[in-house]
Amino acid sequence: MRSASPNSSVNWGSDMPKYSHKPVLLNEVLTYLNPQPGDQLIDGTVGHGGHANELVARVLPGGTLLAIDRDERNLAFARETLAPHGRAVTFIHDSYANLASHAYEHGMSAVAGILLDLGFSSAHVEDAARGFSFQSEGPLDMRYDTRQELSAATIVNGWSAKELAQIFHQYGEERHAHKIADAIVRARRKERILTTLALADLVASVRPRQGKMHPATRVFQALRIAVNDELGELERALPQMVSLLKPGGRLAVISFHSLEDRVVKAYFKAHDRKELRVLTKHVVTPGREEQLNNPRSRSAKLRVAERL
User: Fold this and answer.
1) Which of 77, 130, 215, 220 has the most neighbouring CB atoms within 10 Å?
2) What is the reported pTM?
3) In a 10 Å sphere around its CB, with 0-12 CB exposed, 13-18 middle and 19+ buried, how is residue 178 labelled?
4) CA atoms of 27 and 22, how far apart (whole Å)
5) Domain residues of the chain, as ranges?
6) φ, ψ for residue 93 (rounded to 5)?
7) For every one of its 308 residues, what pLDDT tens digit does the chain have, with 9 covering 90 and above?
């Protein structure tokens, strides 16, 4: 999960949360991508602009950065963070799965580096109105891009027990997937399930607690992945990104759960010594100091490959 914490100067008004972003594995990203003055770069998940701010500073003068994010609020934060770099940064409100078309539109066909920092940020968790977390009451939403129709409520109240069990098992690796799905279908016959706590309480009532993890954790992960088609987006984007890299250009991907990491690892392995040279033979993880300073970085995994 990308990390953010309260105290940004971004002003969304009195009803909007405020955050400051701590970019994960920043030194490692800068070392592997090694941006140089004049380079063209793409940040496909710009978030609050933490990585991008350091990257674009190193490509000036003459360099440019394409900053993409599905979340309109993220882009607003990034615009403020990256404002000092002026026209060197172009902002795109879209999924990184459509990255290639935007790159070509802005004259980028041989870029030096591309970064993906996958997953949702703690800003999403801490904003109850976005519906990503069961830590507080909120609408069952989970959309990164609020323009899309599919939400977690749509899935929970409309998909069959078989479909629900499939995503809980596939995306949440939930062993009690069928039991939870059946309970959801029974409950929604009486009343629609529309809030995060209503769903979390329902799951907790039928799934035994194991250790410190909340019983609904895997179900919420599965719904978020399904709502935003996270694995499909990644699978569609990887070949586009490789095609955009110039020889010697590098692709860096930070993932936060094993499902994403498996997709990246498998793609890199399949194309190693063909289109790519894998630079991270072993996945790169945060050091002890970073984990202590930013506990949410603990699950981060970085993989990097270079275009041949």
Assistant:
1) 77
2) 0.91
3) middle
4) 12
5) 4-122+230-307, 128-228
6) -95, 95
7) 454 333 333 333 334 444 456 899 999 999 999 999 999 999 999 999 999 999 999 999 999 999 999 999 999 999 999 999 999 999 999 999 999 999 999 999 999 999 999 976 666 667 888 988 998 899 999 999 999 999 999 999 999 999 999 999 999 999 999 999 999 999 999 999 999 999 999 999 999 888 889 999 999 999 999 999 999 999 999 999 999 999 999 999 999 999 999 999 999 999 999 999 999 999 999 999 999 999 989 999 999 999 99
